[in-house]
Amino acid sequence: MSIFYNQQQRVFRMDTPGSTYLISIVDEEGFLCHTYYGRRIPDDNMQYLLRINPISIPFRDSGHQTNLLDELPVEYPGHGLGDFRESCLAVRTEEGRRACGLTYLSHKIYGGKPALPGLPAAFGGEEDCTTLELRCQDRFLGIEVCLLYTAFEKLDVICRSARIENHGEKSVTLTAALSACLDMDNRDFDLITLHGSWAYERMVNRRPVSWGKQGVASLRGISSHQEQPFLALAEHTATQDQGQVYAMHLVYSGNFLAQVEMTQQELLRAVIGIHPQDFGWRLDPGESFQTPEAVLAYSHTGLDGMTHALHDLYRNHLIRSSWRDKPRPSLVNNWEATYFDFNTEKLLDIARTAAKGGIEMLVLDDGWFGCRDTDDNSLGDWFVNEKKLPGGLPCLVSEVNKLGMKFGLWVEPEMVSPNSELYRAHPDYALQIPGRPPMLSRTQLVLDFSRKEVRDCVYDQLYKVLSSANIEYVKWDMNRALTDVSSFCLESGRQGELLHRYVLGVYDLQERLTRDFPNLLLENCASGGGRFDPGMLYYSPQIWTSDNTDAVDRLRIQEGTALLYPLSTMGAHVAACPSHTNGRNTPFETRGLVSLPGCFGYELDLTLLTEEELAMIPGQLENYRKYGPIFHGGDYYRLASYGDNREYDALMAVSKDKKTAVIDYVHVMSRQQRRDVLLPLRGLDGEKRYRSSETGEVRSGAGWMYGGMLLPKMKGDFLGKLIVLEAV
Description:
- By secondary structure, the protein is of the alpha+beta class.
- It folds into three domains: 3-184 and 243-250 and 263-296, alpha-galactosidase from lactobacil brevis (Beta-galactosidase, Chain A, domain 5); 331-630, Alpha-Beta Barrel (TIM Barrel), CATH 3.20.20; 639-727, Golgi alpha-mannosidase II (Immunoglobulin-like, Sandwich).
- The protein is 20% helix and 31% strand.
- It has 14 helices and 38 strands.
- The strands form seven sheets. Strands 6, 7, 8, 9, 11, 12, 14, 15, 19 and 20 form a ten-stranded antiparallel β-sheet that branches. An eight-stranded parallel barrel has the order 21-22-23-26-27-28-29-30, surrounded by five helices. Strands 5, 10, 13, 16, 17 and 18 form a six-stranded antiparallel β-sheet that branches.
- A hairpin with a 3-residue loop joins strand 2 and strand 3.
- Helix 7 (452-467) runs parallel beside helix 8 (498-516) and helix 10 (551-562) packs parallel to helix 11 (588-595).
- It starts with a strand and ends with a strand.
């Protein structure tokens, strides 16, 4: 087991292969103090790091208590009792009072990992991980908090969450309930986050940690295009493969806060969890509240170590789909080919061309239901528009299957159009503030998924559609943020629960979908990448990465995504040119190279391709079948970033047995007097010898890594090549 309690020292110890995490119980009051987190050490007695001395021990009668509490590294900080930094737990009583503080009560340690009711979370058996339940209390409020920690045996990952229980006689309201806190000394850290916008998601931002509070957040009801529920503290000198990195990633799909605060003493407090703004959860006697799970990853081998730990955790201990370890089918999506203007014959024309090239699936996007010819109507009316599709989906799917292809379908279950049968029958099903005109976005409103009857209404429709034909894939879209956050069915004292209840409702519906259709390949989407987070990965093994389908723009988007997520989770398509997002023309071959590492497909009208382009498709698909397992199951390395050098981009994937490596190189912009590019490789076995598919050269892994691979300069823009190294 990887978790131990030293009774003599009163220290909890959690070990992973490369890290140690220590928690101390301090003085007779039982303060829980964060003592150490970092590279693995054999010591338990590290309390000297707390800087507690006899004149400032936090006894209740100590005159130094207040000063100390504001400097003490606290494991799960409360509010209003002398710690003036960001709190994880804030409580308002019926009388309006707001103070709370926690002390040790009891603990238990056991093998395996418990599920979190109603929430996505990592999983593992007794052979995979060990769990600590650390129970603490505010005896004045009657509140108990169970802090959950799970340390993985083979990964430098610790998962954390908190369960808050009301054992008192009165109701209280939680006004903050974050998932995790890390208190530590500043060591010249940089803060790394991922920011963006629609069509430019997950751009890497690295900046020095400074005084005060810095971080990212979402108040949009979703994890958002703009920010990722993630932060990392990296030593200023840390690189891709050197230096210490501490990461926090929230397994949640709604409003969040991820923040680091530097105090007057140059102490750092990093917190992550549900954003306290617009949050208020009434906890009646006997009730409990479970926070989402936070994933903590530690690396002393730079960003590579962090990335590999998260990739392996998400691949093996978060994604549950039956498709998790299977090769994902190549597909063609009709959206950029037809938009709303299609019929059965047009779709079959695309399918016939796709089948000839070896593409495995046709996906029918928006416009197949209700009276949907534009995007201003019919959301919520999940029945087939037989004017477009005579005979409905059974007829179309049957014809597609006869071509040897699978069939997939787009849906947007969380939305409703004011111009729809559903809204006319049940206007109260939408989020609205009584007496205030609702805020439209994309001419649609958001359904109140906190209500079971609303979820049941939508799901009953979806179930009938998905049961009507051999539908093997669903693209679940979500195309606007939440406004008018008010429910007709929640009492006034519980309206602050709505945003979280909404997210729980989304999880409930996806849980039902994956339970009733266990072989379904579910791909989540939110205007592209607006809800690309670990919470959604729990239900779907892949997510549409971005609505920006331009190959050059995708380089930076996919780079930021791959910093945290396995390449197997990234929907990536060869799109139409000129690009529908920015007008750029990129060669068909290069578009294929950019899309190859992800879940590969096409999003264009295949019938309009040239003979030369059509002839490239079988080769692109052969590369996907051959090297997809290495990209999806191997170790990922970022070799060069177009976002940094403005010339070229390169990534590398190495099989777990170190026998094969694949380098995906894109030469974006040429410049005069550029010498041949030298790429130092990573991740190879230094003792093995590898042959290059590009030159036939055989060199040791050490030679390729420390000497580098020389790439002759390319004349022209937007070019690329795939290079494979095979052990000989």
